[in-house]
Structure formats: structure tokens, C-alpha cells
Amino acid sequence: MSQKYIKSQNKNSHSLAYGKYYATAVYDSNFVGTEELAEFIQRQASVKKSDIKAVLQELGEALKHFFEMGQKVRLDGIGIFKVGFSSIGVTKLDDCSAATITTRRVLFQPETTRVVVGQEKKDDGSVKQKYVNAITLLKDVVFEETHDNAMNVESDSASSGSGSSAGSNSGSDTGSNGGSNSGSDGGNTGGDSGGDSGNNGGGSDPN
User: Fold this and answer.
1) Lowest CB count within 10 Å: 14, 60, 65, 174, which one?
2) End-to-end CA distance of the chain, in Å?
């Protein structure tokens, strides 16, 4: 199995990337629900489907509880969930209060895994490893072009290349890492609060 994509052309004449083609993610019209998740997990583990469903159904309540306590939740192999919000900018310090907080959202920072991609020889003859930090959930995903008209392009996808930026990538996803949402809800001048510095950058081992 693979993540499907189609070839999409940027048709925004005001964009510096106008006319360029990009790979755009497409998805099956059906969501995988609790029932299917429970069936899959049951095949992978010696746990009854009914017990798995009960746990999955309680997961939302558990997340809500800890969010109300002002805590972040880390699920091993998945990532960190936490509360994010936008607020209205005010000129006076005393006017900045909970009343200025507007849109609330859940922020997700995926877990990352260090993946060695090669080696680099230093001037002194020593060798150090070069690596990237890959998102654990995605590091084994393969991609495949599709011509299936039943597949749907996400309407809010940032990877369609229709934006005004002209980088080598067609767009940058927002909201996948802590604090990366732009807070563009009407009238809000601030972005999301409480962003972690995500461990999603590439690099080489400094040692």
C-alpha cells in the first residue's frame, strides 16, 4: 500500500511558482473509523476487539481531561498533543486576559526518529554520521501516482502549489508541529500559543 498523489499545476498567475507542477496528496473518500482500527489492532495483538474499542472510545475523554489540566500528552510512537489558541492583540498589558483568547485548537507534534543517511569525512580524517530526523509515523510511507478519479484532494491542502510562495516545495503544512499555526482566524493578530521547538529538522551529528 502507498500514499497516493496526483500531478497538479500551479495556476495562480500571481505566484512566482506559476506554471510549475507539484505532487499533490489525494485520499480515499472513506475515513478509517474506530471499528476498523480496533479490527486491525486485534489482528496485531492478543487483545479482544471489544476491549480495544472501549480504550479507543475513552482516549478522547482522557485527552480532554489532561488538556483541561493544562498538560501535554505524549503517545509513544505517535507524538505530543497539546492545546493551542489564538488571541486578539491589545495595546495595554492589563487588557490582555483570557477574554482575548479566541480560537482553540489541538496541536500535534509528531514523534521523530533519527535516521542515518550517510557519512562525512572530516579534515582530521575522522568520520561522522549524517542524519535526518524523520517523523516516526511517516518514515516507511511510500508514494505512488494515481489516476483514480474517486480519490479526493484535500480542499485545504497546503501542498497543492496554489499559494503565493515560490519555494522548491509547493507549500508548507501548518499545524503539524507545535506553534506552527498562523492564527489567521478573523481579527486575530497572534499565532498559536505554547509552541515547542519541534525535533523535525535535519542535520549532522555534531560529535
Assistant:
1) 14
2) 38
Share of residues in the chain with pLDDT > 70 (%) = 74
With a CB cutoff of 8 Å and minimum separation 6, the contacts of 34 are 53, 56, 57
Residue type at 67?
F
Measure Cα distances from 37 to 40, 44, 196 in Å. 5, 11, 29
Of residues 33 and 131, more confidently modeled: 33
**C-alpha span between 42 and 108 (Å, rounded):** 26
Give the CA radius of gyration of the chain.
21
- Would strands 101-110 and 152-153 be described as parallel, antiparallel, or unpaired? unpaired
Could you give the 3-state DSSP secondary structure of residue 187? Answer: coil
CA distance 43 to 79: 23
Give me the pLDDT at residue 20, please. Answer: 95
Residue 102: enclosing H or E segment and its boundaries?
Answer: strand 101-110
Within 8 A by CB and 6+ apart from 1, the residues are none
Helix orientation angle between 34-44 and 49-68, rounded to the nearest 10 degrees:
120
- Which letter does DSSP use for residue 16 in this model? T
**C-alpha to C-alpha distance for 179 and 201, rounded to whole angstroms:** 15
Residue 196 pLDDT grade (very low, low, confident, very high; cuts 50, 70, 90) = low
